[in-house]
Amino acid sequence: MPIDHFSFGNSKTFKLRYLINTDHFNKINGSIFFYTGNEGNIEAFAQHTGFMWDIAPQFGAAIVFAEHRYYGESLPFGNGTYSNISTMAYLSSEQALGDFAVLIKYLKEKRINNATRKPVVSFGGSYGGMLTAWMRIKYPHLIVGGLASSAPVHYFENVTSGHSYFDITIRTFENSGCKLKSLFASFDAIKKLSNTTNGRKFLNKNYHLSLSSQIINSSQGQDLIDYFTGIMDTLATVDYPYPTNFITPLPGWPVKKACEPFINAKTTEELALALYNGLNLYYNYNNLKYLCLWGDDCISPPYSLGNNGDGWYWQTCTEMFQPLCARGPPFDPFDKWCPYLNEDKFNDCNQSYYNVGYTKELFRPTWIFNNYGIEYPTATNIIFSNGKLDPWSGGGWRQTTTNVGSLYSYVVEDSAHHYDLRGVHPLDTQSIKELRNKEKMHIHQWITEANNIANNINE
């Protein structure tokens, strides 16, 4: 794969990894399902995107998962990929789309037999969903349509309120039993107990804290609170109705499970212990006897499906700055850092990357809109699906179920982060079953229209 798709002065190449399955490919009237890889190892996305596998037989589809450059094993400069500005310079959404475009052409012409004129449908979730939407906008001659699930294409400067992300997080928790008033009462109870020796003993014992995570002074009561608020958005993101291991092993409806103790908590002790369920189910995913939160011997679960080096953070410091921020009490239980301005982000990035040559000219917070647009008035055949439980839904193309031409927005009440892309499950909600049926209808229409056009050309 060319390291630089957009200049004629760099002839260097690298190996881009992709996964392919042709078990269901129909050489007569088949199609190709193409997943635009996210910021992580591509295997993880193949494992958690069962919808593509489920419907491939119906559409006679070959399945392809393309890894995003600079992630997984697709490292343009090997172990030195993240060493300096000159090696990181080619990490961008636009270069990744260039990879996908070249790969699609290669697949159709050389890798998959009898695929030259077969229609390609793109799929993606989260950042991958953004890439699918932008792929359809940039390369409509290569893909006939795209399912952009939970794609926060509007979580950028001056488009969507930055605090929407945390507003949705607290809404999901409140609807599951964690009323804001109860959360604040629980925090106050923990702070009160952490001020006394006996209170700290009570917390250490009843939270089953490991030796390295003992609360030994009053300030560490706040640490306990911070660990809970620090996982709230993640729990809301993966609030699926059945057990999953998408981020870490979690039970079905994990937010509801985390909120159960809050519903009947009344005394100081009950309120102080209300955070335990959430902390234990998230951090104690190995079911150890003790809860380990801080200390060198603690093993925390991942916060994403895996990344390489500084890949995603680097992208946020160049083109992908999303100014998400919390308003703090009384609006939400998080530390207040709204507004999160361009200057704030640049200072954070400069602190991280000044030693490798980072400058203000590399920070381009408006480039995404300059490059891809905001409303996509000329685009066609894109589904934007979002779930209202998901904090990322606040950056969706639309906040309601609607359409503009063949751009469709579907917003589902009881759905979390790209739930529709997951495989069929016995505990699936009725609303997600209905959404998937609509998505299959659109995909069928895109493929049929593309085949009709191809047949007319051949005639």
TrEMBL record:
GO BP: any one term: proteolysis
SUPFAM superfamilies: alpha/beta-Hydrolases
One Pfam family recorded for the sequence: Peptidase_S28
GO molecular function annotations of the record: dipeptidyl-peptidase activity; serine-type exopeptidase activity
Keywords for this protein: Glycoprotein, Hydrolase, Protease, Signal
Similarity field: Belongs to the peptidase S28 family.
The protein's name: Uncharacterized protein
